[in-house]
Amino acid sequence: MNSTVLQTPIVYLKGVGPNRAETLQSELGIHTYQDLINLFPNRYIDKTQYYKISQLQRTSSDVQIVGKIVNIKTVEQKKGKRLVAKFIDDTGEMELVWFRGQKWIRENLKLNIPYVIFGKANWFNGTFSMPHPEMELWEDHEKGLKIYMQPVYPSTEKLANKGITNRVTNKLIQQLFLETKGRFTETLSSGLINELSLISKAEALFNIHFPKNQELLAKAQFRLKFEELFYIQLQLISKNLMHKQKIKGYNFDKVGTLFKTFYEQHLPFELTNAQKRVIKEIRADLGSNAQMNRLLQGDVGSGKTIVALMTMLLAIDNGFQACLMAPTEILANQHFMGIKELLGDIGVNIALLTGSVKKSARRVIHEQLENGELQILIGTHALLEDKVAYKNLGLAIVDEQHRFGVAQRAKLWHKNDIPPHILVMTATPIPRTLAMSLYGDLDISTIDELPPGRKPIKTVHRYDSNRLKVFQFIRDEIKKGRQVYVVYPLIQESEALDYKDLMDGYESIARDFPLPDFQISIVHGKMKPADKDYEMERFVKGETQIMVATTVIEVGVNVPNASVMIIESAERFGLSQLHQLRGRVGRGANQSFCILMTGHKLSSDSKTRLETMVGTNDGFQIAEVDLKLRGPGDLMGTQQSGVLNLKIADIIKDNDILKTARYHALKILREDISLKRHPVILHTYTQLVKYKNIWNYIS
């Protein structure tokens, strides 16, 4: 069938009309025939069996029965009336009951004519009854399209109120099949269909809506899930390959003096095998004549900063400048101080540019940047300003990349005639399935190994009733010269409540850890930046032993002497946030601890999160659990959730299908990037992009 027919507005389908069309559009986003055919059922009710009344069990399950109505009566009850019909077959009798719509139902029921009824059979007062059954005359049932496994479609309260029931939706889809004669153009090549033993597109669509049995339904689901994931992967991979072909990058072919000197004389510890592997992957990109577009992911403390610095030194050795952009001033400052310390007297000119930098200092930075004296610039969004111009920017690194919008990252591209190489970093481990779906157009490097000498953080869960023991543990750690974080949740909707929690907590800790023996810092979002920085600085210098804070310390604080993280009301945090907070300790050689404090009332999800935190320090395992608990949209934030607005596939449950789809998309594109030797796939891909049925990822 010509795909343009499927773009027909839904209002023209027999049985829809303007009012229903408006409701279908607003509630389910159904604008065209194509949208309706892609409204896939949530579940199925098995109608392959007809029961006899004598076979019914007292289980309140859905059953289908053939019989006749022999009697109808209205029964008075305390409130209103109910309509009761006596329904019989050759093995017994039961009651059909209606509490609403009685007048219309009574007028339309036919006595002593065979019906097929379907619904929940309830046992009450020694007899079976079925409230508000679905009913169809046997004659119509015989003539109609046999729907053995009845599909249950997504619905909303408004759809139900407007009379668009599951049955109506089903009838509309039947009508669509009649109008199109069930002829749907094949969308995959015969090679793929044969290799994977897939059923045809037309068969798959028919059996997803009207499956005759479980086997055909499974084949239909596999075919449609594979196709959906295949075309998303095709788009991501082709974008990556085209990018490498079309967008030329600077060739960093030389490993020069700065890189060698740093590696041989200034490296504070031996690189892990994972770091070495990642540097090798980056070097291959930088010497390929194509622009690098790589995502570097690694857990908290895995040593991404060293990799970033060594990549910057490669750029400088080849006569280029480098910049590193971080989402907050605290993090930008930390990068600046850390990298400056690592470089020592190696002779690299490095500067920091944030909103707090004074005009006179900015002027010097701008001048040195334009004349090439400044080799590394570290900063916040300030790096994106138009007046920040480089002499020769060859490498741009973006830290915590998910905190920057696409448009912001794209601005870095235009800071040189040929776009600089781009390395984006994240300390939030991304599950492999999600990475393939969200960042399939980027090359991905993973540091999955912690530096030697780092002791795993011991994590425990304690209830509020154990608080005195926890306070004693804090005293013992402080006696050893250690420092402690106490973090309270901060949730925007209840900022006043959270602020009270924080202040109550601070007062309680101040009573138990009094002056002059103990010094306490406090940091929260309502403080002026200068006051916040002052309190942070006191803790960093070791002038205070306890830092009471909200989640403002989640990123950007590096205090190797801090060995205890207490997280209050831990059940109110997400898994990734708990893991990020835990990563604030364990940065020195001492054994570190994370204590999750909660009340006794916990939801099952909260228990799963706490058990996961206690059970593992592996950020990737934690991310997988988080993905299962929250789903891809929530995990990646609203910015990217639309990307995964899948029609039938589920990236968590259909992980294996996703891998298969990616493998075949990659194989086809490597052999034939233009898809000219795969006309069916090329045509389908073009149509999907044209009608915006797959997402245009923006680089």
UniProtKB/TrEMBL annotation:
Pfam families: DEAD (PF00270), Helicase_C (PF00271), RecG_dom3_C (PF19833), RecG_wedge (PF17191). Residues 285-447 form the Helicase ATP-binding domain. This is ATP-dependent DNA helicase RecG. Keywords: ATP-binding, DNA damage, DNA recombination, DNA repair, DNA-binding, Helicase, Hydrolase, Isomerase, Nucleotide-binding. PROSITE patterns: HELICASE_ATP_BIND_1, HELICASE_CTER. Transmembrane segments: none annotated. GO terms for biological process: DNA recombination; DNA repair. It catalyses: Couples ATP hydrolysis with the unwinding of duplex DNA by translocating in the 3'-5' direction; ATP + H2O = ADP + phosphate + H(+). Residues 469-633 form the Helicase C-terminal domain. It is an enzyme of class 5 (isomerase). GO terms for molecular function: 3'-5' DNA helicase activity; ATP binding; ATP hydrolysis activity; DNA binding. Signal peptide: none annotated. The lineage of its organism: Bacteria, Pseudomonadati, Bacteroidota, Flavobacteriia, Flavobacteriales. Its EC number is 5.6.2.4. Gene3D superfamilies: Nucleic acid-binding proteins (2.40.50.140), P-loop containing nucleotide triphosphate hydrolases (3.40.50.300). Plays a critical role in recombination and DNA repair. Helps process Holliday junction intermediates to mature products by catalyzing branch migration. Has replication fork regression activity, unwinds stalled or blocked replication forks to make a HJ that can be resolved. Has a DNA unwinding activity characteristic of a DNA helicase with 3'-5' polarity. It comes from Arenibacter echinorum. Belongs to the helicase family. RecG subfamily. CDD domains: DEXHc_RecG, RecG_wedge_OBF.
